[in-house]
Amino acid sequence: MTAPLLGTSFIGYSRSSGTQVCGQGVNPGTGEKLAPAYLGATPDEVERAVALAAAAFPIYADLSGKARAGFLRAIAAGIEAAVEEIAARGPQETGLPEGRMRGETGRTTGQLRMFATLLEEGSWVDARIERAQPDRQPAPKPDLRSMLRPLGPVAVFCASNFPLAFSVAGGDTASALAAGCPVVVIAHASHPGIAEIVATAVVAAARETGMPEGVFSLLYGGGRMVGQAVVKHPVIQAVGFTGSRTAGMALMDTAAKRPQPIPVYAEMSSVNPVVILPGALARGEAALAEAYYGSLTLGVGQFCTNPGLVFLPEDRGDEFLARLKTLVETGAPGTMLNASICKAYAAASDVFASAPGVQTLARCASPAAPGQGAPVVFTVSIRDFMANDSLQGEIFGPGALIVRGGVAAIEASIATLEGQLTATVHATESELTACASLVFALQQRAGRLIFNGFPTGVEVCSSMVHGGPFPATSDGRSTSVGTLAIYRFCRAVAWQSFPQAALPAELQDLNPLGIKRME
Amino acid sequence: MTAPLLGTSFIGYSRSSGTQVCGQGVNPGTGEKLAPAYLGATPDEVERAVALAAAAFPIYADLSGKARAGFLRAIAAGIEAAVEEIAARGPQETGLPEGRMRGETGRTTGQLRMFATLLEEGSWVDARIERAQPDRQPAPKPDLRSMLRPLGPVAVFCASNFPLAFSVAGGDTASALAAGCPVVVIAHASHPGIAEIVATAVVAAARETGMPEGVFSLLYGGGRMVGQAVVKHPVIQAVGFTGSRTAGMALMDTAAKRPQPIPVYAEMSSVNPVVILPGALARGEAALAEAYYGSLTLGVGQFCTNPGLVFLPEDRGDEFLARLKTLVETGAPGTMLNASICKAYAAASDVFASAPGVQTLARCASPAAPGQGAPVVFTVSIRDFMANDSLQGEIFGPGALIVRGGVAAIEASIATLEGQLTATVHATESELTACASLVFALQQRAGRLIFNGFPTGVEVCSSMVHGGPFPATSDGRSTSVGTLAIYRFCRAVAWQSFPQAALPAELQDLNPLGIKRME
């Protein structure tokens, strides 16, 4: 894994022969351009990648879960073997520290192995068997059996803020490959080198484990050109995306306008409200402010679960605010992922700063160098908040808005919030019980509810829900993290009166895979 | 249940005071108008029905499964008690025979009780519990628990072809109510009286079991006016529909253009291909033709699963065709559901009859009276079929197209078909194994595969899939029949670090409901 980066797309097992430069890595801290220049996939190459995925699909979909698990484990091993390359290249391309690169590598390989374990166990397919009752009156009951089957080839878009865990071999790819869907990945312009390192590992794993060519391709050239072409292609049956609301909604629009509309799983925009009740303040305002500040500024605030909106009782919390003010003012700016995110952060902060009734509680005193984002916290009354929908917008970065109001007004305000990935309550247990209707309102608007904690740090496990009503995600019935993510790329199929030999192993009488079934 | 029909909408527990007539029942066989005239819901009443649903939602969603099951069972009992009224009114409004009315009443009450049983057992919520690991390195693992929760108020459109099983208290309503979602039903203009009889039973059951007002409303006034207004309303969180492709796509479009897009489960259009291989013909062509004719003409062909497209080997099947010809020619026309379906059937038949290369194999010799549809069967070569996409269109009624070709050409043709609810293969077991790639191609395009049978007669059970890729349904990941239908109206929610008392019973340590969980 010490081959030099080539700067070209992966079209199945071949490398692109494109000649047009579409971009290259840029160090967001220094502005330095990083070799090599990346060549965009040509329209013919896009077509070829998709055609290979279509040809691979019947073969890949019918492999055993164990065979697909072997592929996922080989990818994980290959990425692990490349961790030094990732740790070297990643910080240059993303501004993220080396430790984060190593940690995110571990999360990514962990995700792949989690899905491998799910496949090896095998019961996830929800096999259901109802045997024939030929003598039933008034009509015989036929033999009916159902299980989940893969949708078909899937388009996956890499995310800027998770160059590994939500990119080439991240959660979307891992869950789609686990489901039995070939994947065509569209690289993010922000970290083309990490994408190439990881894709090299994926392709090597595919070859090594005998996967059909086309089970994976990686295309450079950007979401607007190459990405839209892939999403429009009739072969593609679903889309995974993490990124901005604008880009996600453009994909939703394209998918809805296809002759055959397809599902889009876009994780887009969330401000992750935090409701602080008096009892939580009574436990110690300064400590709460410190914990909150840590979550707000983690990763320079560039997480989907960043808690950017706080509801604070209007008649208390002075010490919380004072401590938060000090932390923000004495905090440090951080290098953001790329120049456009940095610019958008500054612009969103300016919109908030100049909105009616909004006060700036604190700004980081250290000046932000080019490419950096600095913490900032605003406050506003709940009346002014409710009068201005734009204050529900996301400040992607370490910026927050604190809304002051009475508990009843807070509850009324929550009923007007858009959909969120997470919602958090800081309270005593008795307050939590007393404000059940407020908690229900939060539940209606979020995929995950957190008590006395913070939403950053998304656990990858079977009970995680990293989704939520629109616009947090395009499809609030889905999660992009955890084992439930596999269900995005499946649908149930029923077999009626089929002979044993023609049934999938999961549905045969003898249950050769030994899985749990409904029968 | 012998009160006269009032001809007004049900706005929660009140009856509409609308004054504008929107239509009335018409006997499709005689053209006779049936009293009473029906009054359309006013915009204020639509608003009130939706507002009541919104107010009912937090209460209804938090009822126990057993309480919701009691409601469903009370609805079933109420509909059963009204079976004589249904059997009297139904044939007048729909042209369907009395026996069908009684049978469909049984199917409808059976569906309601099936969901009640699912709720009483309780494990369907997919409860997942992962306990905290405070000492885990490098970071503690929080307590995380997830389960399915209802989406919110749902709009349900009644279908013309199932005045009970896919209408006021049909599968969409039963599954949405089971999930915990209040339902606003939009009546179908074709059977307003049956709708009123059933709605009366639903409202009585809601009162009797102490459900919150607004858990159910029934609106008259049509899909285009009242229906669109309901689907656009921000309170509504999902839509269930069975009907034409045009109407279903209009709802998809409206839902996609909302500020918050919502899922639409529209079951629309399917021609349900039947592939006949030589071995099946060798078993007896005449018997196969008779069985096929029975399925094609059942209910005057007005089923979503009507097998309207047959692939037959080009070099055999003469006796199959000869027998089918006789059956069609000596068959009887039947009264169709309403005048517009009858007109559309005649128009679609004419399009097929005049398409290039299409021959009319047989037409029913008895003349069709006004309101009737008569069987007709066309044949076409596979080359002409593949050259003309319009031949993939649905003839809603007892009309079929038989495509003649070689097995390889049939397989190639299947790869070009649109999505279907069902796909059927008639073959020997060894042929089925030998043509695995053909079966895989069918599987990719259908929700249910049938071997040596016919698709009509949809079993209501746990392993039924009555869905399929677009345009069979708007969302090919869903089914509108069977217990899996409940999952259309849910999403997973996770609770992180919540105290026991604030968790749903399904997720509490003590498992007070005794359900199966992942833990």
Describe this structure as you would to a colleague.
The structure is a homodimer of 519-residue chains. Chain A has 519 residues and is an alpha/beta fold. Chain A is built from 16 helices and 21 strands. In chain A, strands 15-17-18-13-12-19-20 form a seven-stranded mixed β-sheet. The two termini of chain A are 48 Å apart. Strand 21 (490-496) of chain A pairs parallel with strand 20 (446-451) of chain B, so a sheet runs across the interface.
SSE order and pairing:
The structure is a homodimer of 519-residue chains.
Chain A: E1 10-11, E2 14-15, E3 21-26, E4 33-39, H1 43-61, H2 65-81, H3 83-94, H4 98-121, E5 128-130, E6 144-150, E7 154-157, H5 171-179, E8 183-186, H6 192-208, E9 216-219, H7 223-232, E10 238-242, H8 245-257, E11 264-267, E12 273-276, H9 278-282, H10 285-297, E13 309-313, H11 318-330, E14 334-335, H12 339-353, E15 359-363, E16 372-373, E17 376-381, H13 382-386, E18 399-405, H14 407-414, E19 420-426, H15 429-434, H16 436-444, E20 446-451, E21 490-496
Parallel strand pairs in A: 7-8, 7-10, 8-9, 10-11, 12-13, 12-19, 13-18, 17-18, 19-20
Antiparallel strand pairs in A: 1-2, 3-4, 5-6, 6-21, 14-16, 15-17
